Amino acid sequence: MVVRVQAEDFDVGAELAALGRDRPAIGAMTSFVGMVRDSGGDDPLVALVLEHYPGMTERQLEAIEAEARRRWPLDQVLVIHRHGRLCPGDRIVLVATTSAHRDAAFDSCRFLIDWLKTQAPFWKQEVTTTGSRWVEAKSSDDDAAARWSL
Amino acid sequence: MKLLYFAWLKTKIGLAGEDVTPPASVATVSDLLTWLASRGPAYADALANRSVVRVAVNQAFARNDHPVAPDDEIALFPPVTGG
């Protein structure tokens, strides 16, 4: 398991190449990249500021990796989550899993991002042309996590 | 007891964190929130709607009946919105 919480951007191609290097038993790799979205309203998004709880974030991510490994036969798990000020189009998060077969790679990747959205201590603040506001949690995210009986 | 505040709880309370010594009668997360809310208007406002306040005790999510102790690190924050 590799968990990184960082301000810097990441290179998806390089990260995935590194994940698969010298791992001949891997038959499948799934990745998810979350990006900063401007919902296109009357008040355009200027930036997204991501705050997190250092220490708890890493603990929570490591706990869910253990749960993913209990559920699926995984080879590698990678989670990179950025914090700080990001702009529309910027990458926020990368989740990647590898396994012998695609079902485990697909399902565990979805599980990890669904879980992360409801259980990892990150908070988004939207900065627009008129001010800033904290993003409210979405019940659809809770529903997505509930699919996995979390 | 070390308290940490995140997101709008930090903004409303006006602090990122503080060391506090609650009275001995504060035994649970629920007791702690009630005591904090009595400490002034900013605390009362931040904690007015408990349904949008999440609590972690020593970096793990904790329910209202979770015990609290003097050496604990206790964080208060809104429902998370990462990913």
Explain how this protein is built.
With 150 residues, chain A is α+β, with helices and mostly antiparallel strands. Chain A is 34% helix and 35% strand. Chain A has four helices and eight strands; from the N terminus they run βαββαβββαββα. In chain A, a hairpin with a 3-residue loop joins strand 7 and strand 8 (132-134). Chain A is globular. Chain B has one domain: Ubiquitin-like (UB roll), CATH 3.10.20.30. In chain B, 27% of the residues lie in helices and 22% in strands. Chain B contains three helices and five strands. In chain B, strand 3 and strand 4 form a beta hairpin. The chains are: A alpha+beta (150), B alpha+beta (83). Chains A and B meet through strand 3, helix 3 and strand 7 of A and strand 4 of B.
How would you briefly describe this protein structure?
Helices cover 34% and strands 35% of the residues of chain A.
Shape field of chain B = globular
Rg estimate of chain B, integer Å? 12 Å
What is the name of the CATH topology of chain A? Aldehyde Oxidoreductase, domain 3
What strand order characterises the main sheet of chain A? 1-4-6-2
Biggest interchain interface, per-side counts: A-B, 28 and 16 residues
Question: What is the tally of helical segments of chain B?
Answer: 3
Helices and strands of chain A, in N-to-C order?
Answer: EHEEHEEEHEEH
Query: What's the count of strands of chain B?
Result: 5
Major sheet: arrangement of strands of chain B: 2-1-5-3-4
Strand content of chain A: 25-35%
CATH architectural arrangement of chain A? Alpha-Beta Complex
Report, as a whole number of angstroms, the end-to-end distance of chain B: 30 Å
What share of the residues of chain A lie within helices?
25-40%
List how many beta strands of chain A DSSP finds.
Answer: 8
Taking all Cα atoms into account, the compactness measure Rg of chain A is 16 Å
* Largest beta-sheet details of chain B: 5 strands, mixed
Instruction: State the domain count of chain A.
Output: 1
Counting helices, strands and paired strands, the structural category of chain B is alpha+beta
Number of helices of chain A: 4
Identify low-pLDDT runs of chain A: none
